[in-house]
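Worked example

This section walks through a single chain of length 456. The input is the sequence exactly as stored; nothing has been trimmed or padded.
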Amino acid sequence: MLFSSIEFLYYFLPAVVLGYFLLPRILRNGWLLIVSLFFYAWGEPKLIAVMLASITLNWLWGIGIGRSKTLLWKRIFLILSCITCLGMLGWFKYADFAIENVNALLGTSVPLLKLVLPIGISFYSFQILSYTIDVYRGRAAVQYDIIDFGCYVVLFPQLIAGPIVRYVDVERELKSRCTTMEDFRLGLRRFLFGLGKKILIANQLGEFLEIFRASGEKSLLFYWLYALGFCLHIYFDFSGYSDMAIGLGRIFGFRFPENFNYPFLSASVQEFWRRWHMTLGGWFRDYLYIPLGGSRCSRAKWLRNVLFVWMFTGLWHGAAWTFVLWGLMFAALLLMEKFVDVTRWPKAVRHGYVLLVIAVSFVIFNAADLTQAGSDLAGMFGLGGVPLVTAETLYYLRSYAGVFVLGLIGATPWPKKLALKQDMPMADAAVMAALLLLCTASLVDGSFNPFLYFRF
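Given that input, the structure is written out below as tokens.
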């Protein structure tokens, strides 16, 4: 079930909110667990067994860590948790990728498993690991109530595509929380603005990207419009989902961490990754990079740590060499910035450099394979004899100019600053109602509507 669907907006969500606030507080986590499992089973009824197994086993491993009297047994239970989470993730997400590469390398013909990837498994696996690792480190208390633990793992607002919520972020709220009218209003507003970002901008750009792929008359300008379009598309698609998740969480009394902070304003690649998918970057930093030694080690080990983290960051997004190349590209750029002081460059040059890097990287990210990535990059830089511009390119530029302009403005803080300046509740309510009406009309029209990050 999609947030951006009629079923969710007009049936599921109102029923969930009504039931939640009618129930006594002691039953609310159980209610959220039941409706979250229903939400997940709506699209994947068979694979819900994978999630239930992960919840049950890791709940037991967490109790084992908490009750163990010796460090050895604590480590054994932590290893069991890592095997459970990473084993399931590896089996469903990377088994066929491994088989394909073994077949290519050895000339064998091992048949592919063709497993269906459980939606959101990359997100909820990392959330579970944050719990067991923090219990092992003594930073979180053991959760003995399986209802509360299950609620944390499958909470529907951020289950499918994040943000990655660590257990310590919501540990206190799982036990006791409340929602004021102001929380409800701000949560609803955040949700509707995220919905608008998804439906009114990301979906329109998604249609443009499909037109580009189907076109037989690509030009240099068309390739660059595609690169810009995908950068804006993935930003509004993913940040829109994060906004909706954060807004829904606030309605139910949870404060989820922010996931984006205007990344296209960055003046370095390092700054970009402090602003883009912040919960993922923080997870890899705290649970992989620092445990490996971070930068407090020899230069050789530090280089290894950076390469490992970014290779795994790429693979986390998908089982393909394009994602590995994408991750290693950022590793190389971040290493370069450690030795080259980009802060001395003129501000315009720094911003231009980052935007170019983002455009190139996301073209690689979105390619079906390395061959397509090479073809797209060649087209962007005028190789292969592509014309500068075609009549078709100009037609689609005129057709989608408005959404491009809206996307470019929306990727800056200006709309938020403008919204904060007005303190008129009636105007705020009118804007939210208009957003809901426009989004509903677009959904009824049956436009392009998948969430990009569902495939991760």
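What to look for: The CA atoms of residues 269 and 333 lie 7 Å apart.
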